[in-house]
Amino acid sequence: MSPGLHRRAFVGSALALGACNRRADAQPAPISLPPLKSIARFPVGACIQAVHLQDPELARLVVEQVSQLTPEWEMKMEYICQPDGSFRFDGPDQIAAFARTHGLRLFGHTLVWYDQPPGAFANLDESRVRFADAYRNYILAVVGRYRGQAVGWDVVNETVEDDGGGIRDSLWARRLGKLEHIVLAFQHAREADPDAVLFLNDFFLETHPEKRRAFLKLAETLLKAGAPLGGLGTQTHLAAGDQKGLIKAAIADLASLGLPIHISEMDVSLQEGGSRAERLTRQADLYREAAEAYSALPARQQFAFTMWGLRDRESWRKREDASDAPLLFDVNGRPKAAAAAWVQGLG
């Protein structure tokens, strides 16, 4: 039996088991799947926090299932940059060490983000330290620390207005210029690591076509300005009520520039979309569609497919709503119907 036929039969039986009992209060039938990274033709990733690695069951699941790790927040400036201007690297160093020990790729997230600018930057006295110099120094320090290990970086994150109206206002935009601070960030990151793939990353690119158009226009502008933009990241935070076809349309549009694509933070919330059973079915459908759309890309554009967590227990969405269950594995690390659907979508 060919690997493709084996996978289809295997996943089909798993989905059939999951469909045997769709009552919201029923225990789902057990689903058995091969490790995600063993059957995908591209790197499969998940986000993690350093504290999560202290849980041996989660650590085992991570090593078993994925080939790439993204720090969920310990590489954000709010964690690294301390009030006195010093840098803290204990958390990201732990994640980098875990990835290195287990042969996993490391992806850096994120260098520049409009939200939560550290006080050390906001309060800079430019008679003592120039803002532009501190900006460059920060990026050089962070990217340089993981040079040779981090395969890529979200250089600038969530910089496009949700209505597609342009670049967001931020401390960085006000002090360095709306477009200029983005170009500088990419240039400094390239200076620190000539080999890492440098990404522009954003959310709502599936559900807000006007934002996607603005995102692509910004990417084209950056390339024309000589910024070393190497890839496009779409977070793909979705809800079970979202329409079918949105993911495929977004991936096709993003791929039009010919750059590598990173599905960088996927999860599918159950907070909307009908009954619980209907939402679970729609969740599985969206994961399947994402896998199908990503699998259809040329191999050179398949940078990685990253889930924003593995188990529901650690999800940021579950921290916001205890009833939510947005990921591929349940709170106990068991694969859900969504995981079987994602595998099926690989083709």
> What class, by secondary structure content?
alpha/beta
Whole-number radius of gyration? 20 Å
Approximate helicity band: 40-55%
CATH overall fold name: TIM Barrel
Uncertain stretches of 5 or more adjacent residues: 1-27
Q: How many E-type strands?
A: 9
Shape-level CATH architecture: Alpha-Beta Barrel
Count of discrete alpha- or pi-helical segments spanning 4 or more residues: 14
Biggest sheet: strands, sense, closure? 8 strands, parallel, barrel
Strands of the largest sheet, in order across it? Answer: 1-2-3-4-5-6-8-9
Order of helices and strands: HHEHEHHEHHEHHEHEEHEHEHH
Total domain units: 1
Short description:
With 347 residues, this protein is of the alpha/beta class. The chain is built from 14 helices and 9 strands. Residues 1-27 have low confidence and may be disordered.
Helix-strand layout with pairing:
Blueprint: H1 3-19, H2 36-39, E1 44-48, H3 56-65, E2 68-71, H4 77-80, H5 90-101, E3 105-113, H6 119-122, H7 131-145, E4 150-157, H8 171-176, H9 180-192, E5 197-202, H10 209-224, E6 231-234, E7 237-239, H11 246-255, E8 261-269, H12 276-295, E9 302-307, H13 316-320, H14 337-345
Question: How does this model look, in words?
Answer:
The structure is a single chain. Residues 1-27 have low confidence and may be disordered. The chain has an eight-stranded parallel β-barrel, surrounded by five helices. 42% of the residues lie in helices and 16% in strands. It contains 14 helices and nine strands. Helix 11 links the parallel strand 7 and strand 8 (261-269). It is an alpha/beta fold and 347 residues long. The protein is globular and about 65 Å long. The protein has a single domain (3-345), classed as TIM Barrel (Alpha-Beta Barrel). The chain has helices spanning 3-19, 36-39, 56-65, 77-80, 90-101, 119-122, 131-145, 171-176, 180-192, 209-224, 246-255, 276-295, 316-320, 337-345; strands at 44-48, 68-71, 105-113, 150-157, 197-202, 231-234, 237-239, 261-269, 302-307. The chain starts with a helix and ends with a helix. Helix 1 runs antiparallel to helix 14 (337-345).
